[in-house]
Amino acid sequence: MGLLLVFGGLALLGYPLLFPSQPDDPEPESTHGSVGWVEENPVENQEEDEARDQRELVLEEWQSVRLVIPDIGLDLEPIYGDVFDDDLLQEAPVHFGMSDLPSTRSGNVAFAAHRRGNAAFFRELDRLEEGDFVYLEVADQLLVYRVAWNRIVEPDDWSVIDSTDYPALTLQTCEPKDSSATHRLIVRANFYKLLDGQNIP
Asked: What are the helix (H) ranges across 55-163?
């Protein structure tokens, strides 16, 4: 009996040498550190996105703006005044005084410009398609719009610049492009998002 106990003890002592144990799994801390970062980051990003979405821009009076439409190579500073004043239209696109000011809440901000002659700022407006980006830089903010539609309307159809219950941007020029205008070409873009102090892509 004593010999059995001795051999049994030796066997137990030699087991680790004959069958070395596999390395332990990494310490939980080493995995939890990375997993924790992955789990927490989306929450932080979500909060930042929500905060960004809650920001607003509502102008009480006209401020200088920059209108950029990359797809047609347009980068101009529209002016405020009488949209029927041809002297102003020779300088830049003109804001419709009867339309709204830029806003992220609601309202339709509208600009008009020539399509022929030396001041043909909106000559290529017909090239814009649904989904194209339009940028309005104002008050150190960048309002991003996306084209929703373009259409040709009668010259006396002013409903296209009516105020809207969503934030919108309307661009107007003469139609057709290369002859005396009989109608008006309208491009409507809907507000997409507000960027704070970022450069136009």
From this structure: 86-89
